[in-house]
Amino acid sequence: MVHLLGSPGAPRYDRETGISGSLEWAIKDAETLENGGVDALMFCNEFDTPYPKKVGPETVAAVAHIASRVAEKTSLPHGISVLFDFFATIAVAKATGAKFARVILTGAFAGDYGIMDTYGAELLRYRKYIDAENVKLFTNISGEFGAPLAPRPIEVAAKGAVFVGLGDALIVQGPMTGMETNADDVHRVKQAIPNVPVLAGTGVTKENVETLFRHADGAIVGTSLKVDGNTWNPVDPKRVKELMNAAKKAR
What we know:
The chain has helices at residues 18-35, 57-71, 86-96, 120-129, 154-163, 183-192, 209-212, 237-250; strands spanning 2-3, 41-44, 78-81, 100-103, 109-111, 114-116, 136-140, 146-148, 169-172, 198-200, 218-219. It has 251 residues and is an alpha/beta fold. The chain has a single domain, classed as Alpha-Beta Barrel (TIM Barrel), CATH 3.20.20. Strands 1-2-3-4-7-9-10-11 form an eight-stranded parallel sheet. A three-stranded antiparallel sheet has the order 6-5-8, with no helix packed on it. Helix 7 (209-212) links the parallel strand 10 (198-200) and strand 11 (218-219). Helix 1 (18-35) packs across helix 2, helix 2 (57-71) packs parallel to helix 3 (86-96) and helix 5 packs parallel to helix 6 (183-192). The longest helix has 18 residues, at 18-35. The two termini are 20 Å apart.
């Protein structure tokens, strides 16, 4: 994860740092991640908490500008996550040449951000409408900062998402940023959909990556790669190398 500093209008936006400061921050983190051996980058407006369900054009412009500028400086493929506006996510992914995007296509959740519905059918049609079908959609099937309104066994939710064509890869994650993904959940999902990529989405560390990779095909990692394991800190080169060494051994 390349976590971008606050976008204009967001509570955490720093007028003194501005867009140029966020760009500089993102370049440094991306370089550290690439030098540490990661496989891909995903740009996310992480510092824009609390996340709205629909972002403004200022957020779309900021994320697209920074992601495209940073992508020019790296040889790694990249993805996009604009929280929690998945139409904006796909649009920015298309504009920046992203290979993948993180969205939520299925289910309905309630929690810290109120009630969140999903629009999988509309999002897939929007992807086709803007000619972005080359952007692979990685979709959460478990709620972050929330719980499903109609709970089902996670393997049933996974089978349902695949059956109706929602997502190119499924993400299993813990209850919030930085909290460990349940390895048993990953196992159950992978057993249910063996031919679809399954990713561990939160709380992946050098200590648990071997366990998670027994069934997960990959992982999205942010917090554990930061200085002191703090989400809001810069990426720590030592932590990146340690995690990637452990991941390579697990593979």
